[in-house]
Write a structure and sequence with these properties.
The structure holds two protein chains of two kinds. Chain A is an alpha/beta fold. Chain A is built from 33 helices and ten strands. Among the domains of chain A are: 2-176, Rossmann fold (3-Layer(aba) Sandwich); 188-255; 539-677 and 687-711, no CATH class. Chain A has a seven-stranded mixed beta sheet with strand order 2-3-4-1-5-6-8, with helices on both faces. Chain A has a two-stranded antiparallel sheet with strand order 7-9. The longest helix of chain A is centred in the last third of the chain and has 35 residues, at 513-547. Chain B contains two helices and six strands. By secondary structure, chain B is of the alpha+beta class. Helix content of chain B is 17%, strand content 44%. The chains are: A alpha/beta, B alpha+beta. The interface between A and B is large, with 42 and 38 residues.
């Protein structure tokens, strides 16, 4: 009992909210994972698809909440991640900032620290990777550094878990102490102007929360908030000329017309000084580092790309070969579940809703989970080892010609497997426009689900010897069309100056299993939760449209025919005729008939029109819909010979080519559409995608139809 | 005047000026590419579309277009 009381946190405990800030690749996420008994909470920052990880834990008499902010090189808003961090630090409530820095690259990391120090918040520096710095012969004097900067610096290592407790103790201590001013020293020119502004504020006894020095620095940096505060104050009229003069002075001093550049140079000079004071480098490293050795091979001008292609090939082999094993079981399980549950429900309508609507729909979603898990483990490995940046380095030249980014390659290739993980993996693109453009193009890479349709139509119109070539031609022309579409979109909708390509090539690191586990788990859960709920609802809708309104007259008249039919074959034939008649008068059939005129120029009859529309739900449905509509029973697959015969009998080759073209280009499936909408960041992008792909599909199919008609 | 793009592999240079617009300049500065910074050219991607450089201890990949905006002098 006593022990319990000793461990449990008091009911009314103090709460400390920590903002974890640092440059990318400094091991922030790993640091947060190394806190023991931590409870991880993963969500999204409002409005954007940036993961927000919060870690909750109790220590001594405090509740801690640590918000892991996305890595940012400087206090700017270039990428979504940087914007999230910037806005969070400026607008949200928190008690203290822990600035995680990479000890082995201190000077560069302190650039961000200097900017944080002007914010007048409590800041603690966590000198991460201390063990690594030590191994590289670096000796950092953390105490001296704390003294120089006027804020606490604690040596830690996320890998060996060294210093974590000391870090938290420091947080508690700093939280209880009154806030102290950090020491940032500038060049003479800037210090002179700071002194002038401080003197002026002091003269007018301006009342403010922050120190005059801090206000002066922020005024010189053109900090918006500080300006807003002072703007309505009577002293502004006199202050303004002082500031204009000061800016001129500083810009002259730095030979630049950009005050931000001037301040960056100020910080850099200050940081050089700090680093020179606190680091003792035992010996200059002359021998090649491991990273250099690996890079000699992996980004080799000739070998680099073949090696990368080999890795990708391996990843896709794993994804679709190993992924297929559990997929069969999942498929079997849902088939069994449907049958078992169906057997217990007496009412036909309810049974059909639950079995054909909900279970089949949700089953289709869960079917992709093995693929998604394997692919994300692979991507997380590529990312966390630092290899992904090398890929972008190698491929950017080619993709840039089409307006894409080097890293677009990963989502595009993934698109050949399945569009859903492809859309999700587009997150590796840090720039909004690059990512959106890539998202729009992914659909052009024919996913695995379209394969059955291709196989069916190729089988109907081409000899078996030609089939392989035709299939290859379809995939290649889809991809090329995608690149052309990217170029066109880049010149029209995504017009504008090229986004610059400046990217860090981080050191190679061994991935942390725990981190990969968390990343993959989080992404998979998000997929299941969001896509799952939407898809269950949407499959119910499709089910409803294809089953209603009921026509009892039709059912009764066919019931009689089925009963009277002689032999199993005839029975099945009558059942199929019933299915066709029912589908024709269902809402879906009505839509098909209604939309038939639109598709007539492409040579489609109403059956093909309906198949395309049910194909919006999933491409696999195209084949089964055609099967039902051409009265072969819904239980058909692409190898079904009678369906192939029926198609070659009823459909002209020109219509078939046009049909394939539409399948190649238009929306992948409902699940993918939902994931696209979420990743693109709004329903309006889905509307654009729908319009874009539909028009492209229609125009290309129209051209293909007429050309084929002329040739044949 | 030389720009970074024209430098050969293994070349060591000092940045003299950034001729980029405001946004790109911020981006470059946030990576430590600013006046007085020392840069070593490490590697060229196929067709020299992208180059890899080293600033301080950080390796950075830059597109040819961006590298052309960075004015440097040999050291």
């Amino acid at each position: 009992m006593n022990e319990m009381q000793g461990k449990a946190c008091p009911v009314i405990a103090n709460h400390i909210k920590i903002a974890l800030v640092g440059q990318p690749n400094v091991g922030k996420s790993m640091l947060i994972n190394s806190v023991s008994n931590a409870h991880l909470h993963v969500g999204n920052f409002s409005g954007v698809t940036v993961d927000k990880t919060e870690v909750l834990f109790d220590y001594k008499d405090y509740h801690f909440t640590v918000v892991d902010l996305p890595g940012t090189y400087a206090f700017t808003d270039y990428t979504i991640e940087e914007r999230v961090t910037h806005d969070y630090l400026c607008a949200e409530e928190y008690d203290i900032i822990i600035n995680v820095v990479d000890s082995t690259n201190l000077e560069k990391n302190l650039q961000l620290t200097a900017e944080l120090l002007t914010m007048s918040k409590r800041v603690i520096i966590a000198l991460n990777m201390s063990d690594e710095a030590h191994n590289e012969g670096m000796d950092i004097n953390a105490e001296y550094m704390s003294e120089l900067l006027g804020i606490s610096c604690v040596k830690v290592s996320a890998v060996t878990k060294m210093g974590i407790e000391e870090l938290i103790d420091t947080v508690v201590k700093k939280h209880e102490e009154p806030k102290t001013e950090a020491k940032l020293i500038f060049s003479e020119a800037v210090e002179e102007e700071i002194a002038r502004i401080v003197w002026y504020l002091d003269k007018h006894k301006y009342s403010a929360e922050n120190s005059y020095r801090n206000i002066a620095i922020n005024l010189l940096k053109n900090n918006k908030r500080t300006y807003e505060k002072l703007h309505d104050n009577p002293i502004w009229t006199e202050l303004q000329p002082i500031l204009i003069e000061a800016a001129k002075h500083i810009e002259l001093h730095h030979d630049s017309d950009d005050i931000k550049e001037a301040f960056a140079e100020e910080y850099a000079a200050f940081n050089r000084g700090i680093v020179a004071e606190v680091i003792k480098q035992a010996k200059e490293e002359v021998k090649k580092t491991l990273t250099e050795k690996i890079d000699n091979v992996l980004i080799h001008p000739i070998l680099g790309i073949p090696i990368f292609l080999f890795f990708m090939w391996g990843l896709f082999q794993l994804t679709f070969e190993i992924g297929a094993i559990p997929m069969d079981y999942i498929d079997m399980f849902f088939g069994w579940l449907g049958d078992t549950v169906g057997a217990t429900i007496a009412n036909d309508d309810i049974r059909s809703l639950i079995v054909d609507g909900i279970i089949a729909g949700v089953g289709a979603v869960i079917l992709f989970v093995p693929n998604i898990i394997i692919l994300f483990v692979g991507i997380a490995l590529l990312e966390s080892t630092g290899y992904m940046s090398r890929v972008a380095f190698l491929l950017d030249g080619f993709f840039h010609k089409f307006g894409l980014h080097g890293q677009s390659f990963i989502p595009l290739v993934t698109g050949f497997g399945c569009s859903i993980p492809a859309y999700m993996s587009a997150r590796i693109l840090k720039n909004d426009r690059d990512r959106l453009l890539t998202l729009f193009i992914i659909g052009f890479m024919s996913c695995g689900a379209r394969l059955p349709v291709y196989v069916l139509f190729i089988g109907a119109f081409f000899s078996p010897e030609m089939a392989g070539n035709m299939l290859f031609a379809i995939y290649i022309s889809g991809a090329m069309l995608g690149l052309v579409a990217a170029k066109i979109l880049k010149m029209t909708a995504f017009k504008g100056a090229d986004e610059p390509f400046v990217m860090e090539m981080p050191k190679y690191r061994l991935p942390s299993l725990k981190l990969i586990y968390h990343t993959v788990l989080t992404k998979t859960m998000m997929y299941l939760k969001k896509a799952g709920t939407f898809i269950a609802a949407a499959s119910m809708l499709v089910w409803f449209l294809s089953n209603y309104p009921h026509n009892t007259f039709l059912e009764e008249s066919y019931a009689l025919k089925i009963e009277n039919a002689v032999g199993e074959r005839a029975k099945v034939k009558e059942e199929n005729l019933l299915a066709e008649a029912l589908l024709e008068q269902s809402y879906l059939g009505t839509i098909g008939k209604f939309s038939e005129p639109i598709f007539t120029p492409l040579g489609f009859d109403w059956k093909m029109s309906v198949a395309l529309q049910t194909g919006l739900a999933a491409k696999e449905v195209v084949v089964s819909t055609l099967g039902v509509l051409y009265s072969l029973g819904s239980n058909v697959d692409e190898d079904n010979n009678s369906l192939i015969t029926a198609i070659s009998k009823h459909i002209s080759i020109a219509s078939a080519v046009a049909f394939i073209v539409v399948i190649m280009i238009y929306l992948p499936c409902l699940a993918a559409s939902i994931v696209f909408t979420r990743e693109a960041g709004g329903i309006k992008y889905f509307v654009y995608l729908f319009i874009f792909t539909s028009i492209t599909a229609y125009v290309m199919a129209f051209i293909a139809y007429n050309i084929t008609k002329m040739i044949v | 005047m030389n720009n970074l793009f024209d430098c050969n592999k293994k070349c060591k240079v000092r940045v003299v000026k950034l001729n980029a617009d405001r946004d790109l300049k911020q981006r470059l500065i946030s990576f430590g590419i600013m006046k007085e910074a020392l840069i070593e050219v490490l590697e060229h991607a196929p067709a020299k579309s992208t180059i890899e450089i080293k600033v301080g201890k950080m390796r950075i990949a830059l597109r040819a277009e961006e590298a052309q905006l960075i004015e440097v002098e040999k050291i």
